[in-house]
Amino acid sequence: METRAALMHQRWQRMKAWWVTRLWYDRLFGRIGPRSRVLPPLYVRHPERVDIGSGVTIGPGCRIETHPPPQRSKKAPPLVSIGDRVRIGGHVRLVGCASLIIEDGVQIEDGCLITDCEYRGAPDGQAYDRQPKTGRPTVIGEGAWIGAGSVVLAGSRIGCRAIVLPGSVVDGVVPPWSMAAGVPAQVIRTYDKGRRLWVPADAAAEGAG
């Protein structure tokens, strides 16, 4: 059972995050919905290209980075879109070069990297961070769960209600209602809605056959 001091500390953290969000981050992002809160510190690059939905929580130490808008463009489309009721843990890094979409109800645990940028610079050119970057749209589907320390690479698509186990590297597609793990991540289980349980992926394939 939590002590009174611990409960008071949690309440203070929530209040601080709410005030910081309303007084500061409201002015930075392209859009941020009601009941969303950001726990400082947060590093954000070109926040005008980030849209955040309602009821979102962003943990401390996160980084959200996007490319600058085109020259003389007053309103450029968002490169990072975060849906409603998304929970992002601490020290998560989101990078948007083309289109990074995180749909409603997604949970991202601590220390994850999710990007739509590809780094394929020329070794004999300038420093890599000065070379042009290309991107492929990356989507995290509704209600998906991304385990701590996972990496989601450019062009990946994680289906709705899918689970990515901690420490995985996703470079491709994780189907809806499936569980993936490993480097690179592979589907190890799928959810049997009829029996309401997770079954090994090979057993599910045999049943479908």
Write the layout of secondary structure elements.
Elements: H1 4-28, E1 31-32, E2 37-38, E3 42-45, E4 50-52, E5 57-58, E6 62-66, E7 80-82, E8 87-88, E9 93-96, E10 100-102, E11 107-108, E12 113-115, E13 117-118, E14 134-135, E15 138-140, E16 145-146, E17 151-152, E18 157-158, E19 163-164, E20 169-170, E21 173-174, E22 178-181, E23 186-192, E24 197-200, H2 201-208
Summarize this structure as a short list of keywords or feature phrases.
209 residues, alpha/beta, UDP N-Acetylglucosamine Acyltransferase, domain 1, seven-stranded parallel sheet, 24 strands, 33% strand, globular
Q: Mind explaining what this structure looks like?
A:
This protein is an alpha/beta fold and 209 residues long. The chain has a single domain (4-208), classed as UDP N-Acetylglucosamine Acyltransferase, domain 1 (3 Solenoid). The protein has helices spanning 4-28, 201-208; strands at residues 31-32, 37-38, 42-45, 50-52, 57-58, 62-66, 80-82, 87-88, 93-96, 100-102, 107-108, 113-115, 117-118, 134-135, 138-140, 145-146, 151-152, 157-158, 163-164, 169-170, 173-174, 178-181, 186-192, 197-200. The protein has a 9-stranded mixed β-sheet with strand order 2-5-8-11-16-19-22-23-24. Strands 1-4-7-10-15-18-21 form a 7-stranded parallel β-sheet, with helices on one face. A 6-stranded parallel β-sheet has the order 3-6-9-12-17-20, with no helix packed on it. The longest helix is centred in the first third of the chain and has 25 residues, at 4-28. It is globular.
